[in-house]
């Protein structure tokens, strides 16, 4: 089963590719070195769950969910942007620097909105 999944994502042969002499190209099954993407955390989590079965590294350029920082679960996942935890920490530092005594948190009901608001609440109550 694993070999079937790995070969199906490493080469695509739908019969439309032809050599100059009209023959079919030779398919060489090559090991995938890594995967670049995905752009959303939700998609990256799903892709990472598949790639970890084959020990294939994944590098995301836009996935910021703190969940992806769990190296026991996502040991082959890397990112080029900081986690949402850093953004929440920066917001708390601004609130503290400005000595605000009352803050309301409005967020969208998405994975991102819920996680960032929860991180802010945790950091805010942890610091005060």
UniProtKB/TrEMBL annotation:
One of its GO terms (molecular function) is G protein-coupled receptor activity. Coiled coil: none annotated. It is a multi-pass membrane protein. The keyword Transport does not apply. It is found in: Membrane. SUPFAM superfamilies: Periplasmic binding protein-like I (SSF53822). It comes from the Eukaryota. GO terms for cellular component: membrane. Keywords: Glycoprotein, Membrane, Receptor, Transmembrane, Transmembrane helix. This is Metabotropic glutamate receptor 5.
